Amino acid sequence: MYSVTVRQCVILLEDTATRGLPLSLTLRGDKPFLAWLMREMQRFGVEEFVFLTSRISQDIATGIENIGGFLPRAAKISISVAPYEVGTGGALRHAQPYLQKRFFLCSANTLFSCNLARFLTVARKGHWMLLRPADPHAHPRDVQVKTRCTTGGSVSPYNDIEPTVQQLINAGLYLFDAQICEVLTEICSLEADVLPKLVENQNLQRFSLTGDFYSAENASTLEKILGEMSVRLRRPAVFLDRDGVINRDLGWVGTRERFEWEPGAREAIARFCDSGHHVFIVTNQSGIARGFYSENDLMTLMDWVVNSIREYGGTIDDWRYCPMHPESAIEQYRGHSVNRKPEPGMILDLLQRWELDPMCCVLFGDQPTDMQAARAAGVQGIMIGPESLSGFVPKLNISLCENELFERSRHGMGR
């Protein structure tokens, strides 16, 4: 099965030739700056992070090791240390043994808020650069690229000369195939050497997204960025029951062969993601307790489900399931659980791990037990049926997250 999901992100630590911790690893507020970047990458399927550096110390190693404790999901974290100053491209070449077939690359000093799934739907192979609308007050060193920009993004060769509609600049986020190593030398700069070579060989494509993009150059700008983004990145959230909401409820669906999408469900999820919401799935799975399928079967199915949603431009940030049932014939699954709806355990766990405000969350379900779980967790519940999820979306003011919900969250107000 082909997957649009990219599971690895390679992160260039800022110049660590100076003494002390890099800015991105120092604790700022309740977490390091870098944890916000990694958290955003996890939303779109990244499970492994590789840090590139030319200097390692016990403080840096400990800082990188500890950062996993600030993330909402478990992650594999590795460090590639170049033996000397080799430049950004040389550092990537030195990390070749760590690289997956496809990976993101970005600086530890960058932070963004956008729907990366729209990027994934287009950038399925080859080497890609993400572009963003230029700040009219940007420093002139930001080389502007002329492109035709449409809603949701645009695709074009890197060096086209179409009539300009909007000025775009490098967002500092790349998506590369591992074959990028073929154009890297022992000492080289990604910006000065590698990207121009890819352009010359017509091997670099680009895609533009709207959203918030920041780069921290010093402590003061880092503090300013976090002041804005740490609030915005604590997003409102949509919780979805699974059977009867995103797929037809055929009774204990545990395999791909029995999974039938509800019409428009994937498009509706993409719209939630475009508007800045987290999207989670919380599902009772008593089919496991009944012996109809295994937990491994469910994991395989859900991996396909989430990847399919990303193919449509949306994502599932995280999901929870409960295989328990009080009358299970299988002893390990027999009993009561705080995670089985109508109990709120799955929702409460996600609220805690992703630092969500329940007053800015909503759950869509098709059973009274879904509504009971929502009330117990302190989130709004909306019953699906006979109208589908896709039918509800046009009626909801989902743009609230960019305006009113942001202001409410900033001022500590509820719904």
What descriptive keywords fit this protein?
single chain, 415 residues, alpha/beta, Spore Coat Polysaccharide Biosynthesis Protein SpsA, Chain A, Rossmann fold, 2 domains, nine-stranded mixed sheet, five-stranded parallel sheet, 13 helices, 22% strand, globular, disordered C terminus
How would you sum up this structure, described in words?
The chain is an alpha/beta fold. The chain has 2 domains: about 10-230, Spore Coat Polysaccharide Biosynthesis Protein SpsA, Chain A (Alpha-Beta Complex), CATH 3.90.550.10; about 235-410, HAD superfamily/HAD-like (Rossmann fold, 3-Layer(aba) Sandwich). The protein has 13 helices and 18 strands. The chain has helices spanning about 35-45, 60-65, 85-95, 115-120, 190-200, 220-230, 265-275, 285-290, 295-310, 345-355, 370-375, 390, 405-410; strands at about 10, 25-30, 30, 50-55, 75-80, 100-105, 110-115, 125-135, 145, 155, 165-175, 205-210, 210-215, 235-240, 280-285, 320, 360-365, 380-385. The strands form 4 sheets. Strands 1, 4, 5, 6, 8, 9, 10, 11 and 12 form a 9-stranded mixed β-sheet that branches. A 5-stranded parallel β-sheet has the order 16-15-14-17-18. The protein has a two-stranded antiparallel ribbon with strand order 2-3. The longest helix has 17 residues, at about 295-310. It starts with 7 loop residues before the first strand and ends in a 5-residue tail after the last helix. Residues about 135-165 and about 400-415 have low confidence and may be disordered.
